[in-house]
């Protein structure tokens, strides 16, 4: 297979989308070579366009999730625009939507109706809580789903539950939508028929909460917030160094504990000390365990500690700020052109294939309605 192969080339994706979950999913297909037409409201557009102005005047979320697409402004309640959308869907392979529950059905674009009319069409509905149940019509912003699913209850510091600092439910729902759509494309290749994909933010978060839920169901107690620590492993967490940095370590087994004691601390007697002689003992005596590590780290510089930890094969990592992360030697950047012609940089694709050429740049971020006239003429 030649390098630079685009596996989605030739696919047409139509996405009636806003915010993060659906735009991020359709952007995956744009990066893979599909033609993606983003449907927006005239004059308003995707409200993520106005989330912030951090990227040279453009919104960070919008730039991240919408490069490489075409923007078409439609009023799907207007007969002429509804007819145009149906003409688009006659040619489309995938239709994605994440409007408020019931909105597309009321406009005549419900997934079941569309697949009956266009049998090869694959539809994807991304919702907050699914299409049934008492919460079906609830507004479901990422933070609220984090709260409802218990994610915040197992994050943060002791006594202070915390929101995860990025929109993980939106992002996770998008990834699940991509997985579902890829499965549907394979199924269509076998059967010749489209199918429907349903994903919700709540189901996504609930899946991630399986282990805490099983602890609650079967052990009678769910894990509590422990900050940078771990509820059942010690030492595990971040410790300040002599030069004001912070390093995190994770000791997963007795061999690693022995290496830490002998090769880093220079205190082999700690291996058999009753306070620390087993994983259970170290967790039971976490305060003493952490104090021991903290005292040693506080007396040595980050550079010296990293040298010793690496030599001892101890898992460690720096507790970086975002500014420090921005200079990380492993961070890959890819340029993108903003809708006004300026250039910015995004993080490189997280998945790479052997048939991928090095991505020289992402597709351009569309201005609101930038392609409306051309698409209307094409599908007239």
Automatic annotation (TrEMBL):
Keyword Isomerase: no
This protein's UniProt keywords: Transferase
Pfam families with a match to the protein in the record: CoA_transf_3
Transferase in keyword set: yes
GO MF terms held by the record: CoA-transferase activity
Domain of life assignment: Bacteria
Coiled-coil regions listed in the entry: none
Protein name from the UniProt record: CoA transferase
Origin organism lineage: Bacteria, Pseudomonadati, Pseudomonadota, Alphaproteobacteria, Rhodobacterales
């Amino acid at each position: 297979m030649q390098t630079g192969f685009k596996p989605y080339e030739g696919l047409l994706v139509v996405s009636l989308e806003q915010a993060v979950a659906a735009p991020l999913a359709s952007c995956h297909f744009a990066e893979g070579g599909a033609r993606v037409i983003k449907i927006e409201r005239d004059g308003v557009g995707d409200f993520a366009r106005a989330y912030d102005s951090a990227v040279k005047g453009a919104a960070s979320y919008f730039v991240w999730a919408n490069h490489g697409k075409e923007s078409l402004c439609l009023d799907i309640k207007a007969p002429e625009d509804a007819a145009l959308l149906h003409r688009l869907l006659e040619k489309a392979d995938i239709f994605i939507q994440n409007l408020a529950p019931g909105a597309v059905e009321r406009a005549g674009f419900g997934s079941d109706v569309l697949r009956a009319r266009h049998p090869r069409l694959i539809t994807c509905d991304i919702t907050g809580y699914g299409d049934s149940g008492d919460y079906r019509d609830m507004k479901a912003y990422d933070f609220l789903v984090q709260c409802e699913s218990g994610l915040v209850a197992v994050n943060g510091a002791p006594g202070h539950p915390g929101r995860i600092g990025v929109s993980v439910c939106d992002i996770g729902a998008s990834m699940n939508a991509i997985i579902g759509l890829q499965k549907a494309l394979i199924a269509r290749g076998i059967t010749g028929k489209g199918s429907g994909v349903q994903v919700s933010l709540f189901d996504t978060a609930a899946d991630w909460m399986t282990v805490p839920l099983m602890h609650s169901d079967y052990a009678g107690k769910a894990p509590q917030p422990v900050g940078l620590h771990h509820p059942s492993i010690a030492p595990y967490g971040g410790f300040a160094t002599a030069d004001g940095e912070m390093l995190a370590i994770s000791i997963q087994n007795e061999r690693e504990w022995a290496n830490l004691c002998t090769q880093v601390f220079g205190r082999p007697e700690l291996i058999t000390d009753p306070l620390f002689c087993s994983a259970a003992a170290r967790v039971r005596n976490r305060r003493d365990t952490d104090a021991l590590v903290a005292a040693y780290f506080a007396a040595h510089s980050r550079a010296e500690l990293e040298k010793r930890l690496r030599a001892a094969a101890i898992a460690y990592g720096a507790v970086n700020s975002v500014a420090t992360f921005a200079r990380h030697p492993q961070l890959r950047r890819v340029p993108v052109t903003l809708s006004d012609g300026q250039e910015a940089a995004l993080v490189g694709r997280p998945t790479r294939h052997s048939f991928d050429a090095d991505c020289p740049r992402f597709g351009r971020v569309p201005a609101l309605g930038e392609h409306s006239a051309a698409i209307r003429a094409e599908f007239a």
